[in-house]
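Case 376 in the screening queue. Each case pairs one protein sequence with one candidate compound; here the compound is pyridoxal-5'-phosphate. For every case the pipeline is the same: read the inputs, emit a complex structure as tokens, and attach any notable structural observations.

Predict complex for case 376.
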Amino acid sequence: MVNRTMGIHERHRLTEVINAKGTFTPLGVSRSSAGVAAAVAGALPEFFVMDELADRASDALAHATGAQAGAITHCTAASITLAVAAVMTGVDPNRIAALPDTSDLHNRVVLPASQVVDYGQSNVQAIRLSGASVTLAGSEKRCSIDELNEALAGPDVACLLLVASRLVPGEAMDLTAAVRAAHRRGVPAIIDGAGQFPRAADLLATGADAVLVSAQKYLAAPTAGLVLGTHRVVAAVRAQGKGIGRAMKPTKEAIVGILAALEEWHAMDRAKWEADQAAKVLAFVSAANELPGLTAEVLPDPTGLPLSRALLTVSGGIDATTLAAELQAGTPPIYVETAHALNGQLIFELVPLDADELEIILTRLAMELQATEKAE
Ligand SMILES: *Cc1c(COP(=O)(O)O)cnc(C)c1O
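Case 376 output:
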């Protein structure tokens, strides 16, 4: 953790943490590169014609992902609200000004019940903020294409909303088949792929009218929402800036930071990046397997992202929930993914971590496990 923070934590009396939990909003999500940070710093003292900046961003997003066009919003929660608004109003200024009153519009959004997610807010609320109402299709465990078809029937459907995320609790859906079902009814489809920047082209290949991605997650850019999609939907999202989108606008420094991050993404040797990440996870797993009371293995990303994580199964005298709490209570606090802690499993995402931090994690794991062995 040398130098990177340049005393920011100390100056403002803030806790320096090790984030092995992934792209987690309460911890600041990701680490931007020095190049992205410099681009942001360069943007802050300048004026811009903001529409020009938005046009350049649209071109860069199209170039990077194969989308027809792109728009930038404050974040993906905002993108959900604004993409739904966009399909309801189009670019009509009167309709945009009337939101969240949708009484004259097709205002029903179909969402598979198995894809209701809570990323700190429920996506149902993000949809409802636009003035739309939500129809859930299928059950929490599963939504079949037949059940989707049933929910899509009727004249007042504004769009189908789908989610591509490891947060999805139910069975994975065939997104391409779901998009086709919507299109057969003349209904546009939006996919929330907030944590899926590296897979944006795959999600667009489903035929979705818009794919929503968080710039601050795997693009490691400043916080912002990327709306990738058709000219029509993107224009209608941008037009919301004169309505409910005013409170969800991107900052100039975020847009400039995204332009820099997209340039770096193009220049990057992705095969090497993936190989380096895989080697890092493998080395961590081997070292963790040496510790008593633990078995470690490589866990591929369940959504097909080109990265894996370390899965630690805790079998000694300490349970996984307690181990995670001890790691978080120490100095520095170490945050890990505890979604499967009740099954004795902790997940470590290593992407943004350096060698020093990995060493600290392994040392602290050894300490905690040793402490419980002694206590037995
Ligand atoms: C993170 C996340 C969001 C919210 O994204 P923000 O950019 O933080 O608003 C929405 N949906 C999913 C699936 C997410 O993972």
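Case 376 observations:
- The longest helix spans residues 355-375.
- The chain is about 40% helix and 15% strand.
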